[in-house]
């Protein structure tokens, strides 16, 4: 699978694009309008700096070659026309993902395998909208994919076993450690562990127990962990926890979503990639 299309160029979508291109894949970056795509060169510069910092052999030549293998377009049919694999990284809402795959199914070649990077949704809830459920599954990445390089591969009951293994092989080819998930689980392995931890931090903050920096400090000092929940929120970016929290059954988490929207998202404080989130990275 040499020809990759990634749908969505946000925090994680852009990382999947860049990591795949860095590993030698030809990548099409798709988003809904040219205004979004015009911001990508700035994003590539941010990622190039991160690779230089974290990867010993990430030379300027290799990084420039990765950027050269990326093509951006807001034309969906053009984006998917030659794709061997399409990875969807659109906002974490079931209706948006279902509508996206319906549109893709109408224009993608028969050969193309479909994968969602959804953090919490089940592939079986999306598969009927793809037009090819046997070629659809989830491939989930952790944030900062070049460094925290797991690729969780999770099918649904209708996923073809050969397709599953092809996607696991693709994950390995782009530098991921493939984690084969044996049955559907909201949140896979990673987020099944991570989300309750992040929610606990959010609840301490919303209830006025402690400030984010002190919550992070407590966790890091007491456990030796490299990051606390709010540092992780900044890496993930504000949009994903906002979408996950705004319709929660828990009123505290709904209040957390309101705080994210009012005090961070509306001010452009979208997380580490934007230079500011709970912490200022300028």
TrEMBL record:
Residue ranges annotated for the 3-hydroxyacyl-CoA dehydrogenase C-terminal domain, each copy included: 187-281
InterPro entries referenced in this protein's UniProt entry, alphabetically: 3-OHacyl-CoA_DH, 3-OHacyl-CoA_DH_NAD-bd, 3HC_DH_C, 6-PGluconate_DH-like_C_sf, 6PGD_dom2, Mito_3-hydroxyacyl-CoA_DH, NAD(P)-bd_dom_sf
A Pfam family per the record: 3HCDH_N
Superkingdom to which the source organism belongs: Bacteria
Transmembrane segments: none
Chain ranges of the 3-hydroxyacyl-CoA dehydrogenase NAD binding domain: 4-183
Pathway(s) of this molecule: Lipid metabolism; butanoate metabolism; Lipid metabolism; fatty acid beta-oxidation
Keyword vocabulary terms for this entry: Fatty acid metabolism, Lipid metabolism, NAD, Oxidoreductase
MF annotations from Gene Ontology: (3S)-3-hydroxyacyl-CoA dehydrogenase (NAD+) activity; NAD+ binding
Catalysis: reaction(s): a (3S)-3-hydroxyacyl-CoA + NAD(+) = a 3-oxoacyl-CoA + NADH + H(+)
Coiled-coil features, chain-numbered ranges: none
SUPFAM superfamilies, sorted: 6-phosphogluconate dehydrogenase C-terminal domain-like, NAD(P)-binding Rossmann-fold domains
GO biological process entries: fatty acid beta-oxidation
Residues at the site labelled Important for catalytic activity: 140
PANTHER family xrefs: HYDROXYACYL-COENZYME A DEHYDROGENASE, MITOCHONDRIAL, PTHR43561
Protein name: 3-hydroxybutyryl-CoA dehydrogenase
Species name: Leucobacter komagatae
């Amino acid at each position: 699978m040499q020809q990759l299309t990634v749908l969505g160029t946000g925090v994680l979508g852009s990382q999947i694009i860049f990591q795949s291109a860095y590993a030698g894949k030809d990548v099409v970056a798709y988003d809904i309008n040219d205004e979004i795509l015009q911001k990508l060169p700035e994003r590539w510069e941010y990622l190039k700096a991160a690779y230089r910092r974290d990867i010993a052999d990430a030379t300027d030549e290799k990084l420039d070659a990765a950027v050269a293998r990326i093509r951006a377009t807001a034309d969906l049919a053009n984006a998917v026309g030659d794709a061997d694999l399409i990875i969807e990284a659109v906002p974490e809402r079931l209706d948006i993902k279902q509508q996206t795959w319906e549109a893709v199914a109408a224009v993608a070649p028969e050969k193309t395998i479909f994968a969602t990077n959804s953090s919490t949704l089940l592939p079986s809830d999306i598969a009927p909208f793809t037009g090819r459920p046997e070629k659809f599954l989830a491939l989930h990445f952790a944030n900062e994919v070049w460094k925290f390089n797991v690729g969780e591969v999770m099918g649904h009951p209708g996923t073809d076993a050969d397709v599953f293994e092809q996607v696991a092989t693709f994950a390995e080819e782009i530098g991921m450690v493939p984690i084969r998930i044996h049955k559907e689980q909201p949140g896979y392995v990673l987020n099944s562990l991570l989300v309750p931890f992040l929610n606990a931090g959010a609840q301490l903050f919303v209830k006025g127990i402690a400030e984010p920096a002190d919550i992070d400090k407590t966790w890091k000092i007491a456990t030796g962990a490299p990051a606390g929940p709010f540092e992780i929120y900044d890496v993930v970016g504000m949009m994903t926890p906002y979408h996950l929290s705004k319709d929660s059954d828990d009123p505290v988490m709904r209040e957390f979503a309101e705080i994210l929207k009012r005090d961070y998202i509306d001010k452009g404080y979208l997380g580490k990639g934007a230079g500011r989130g709970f912490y200022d990275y300028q």
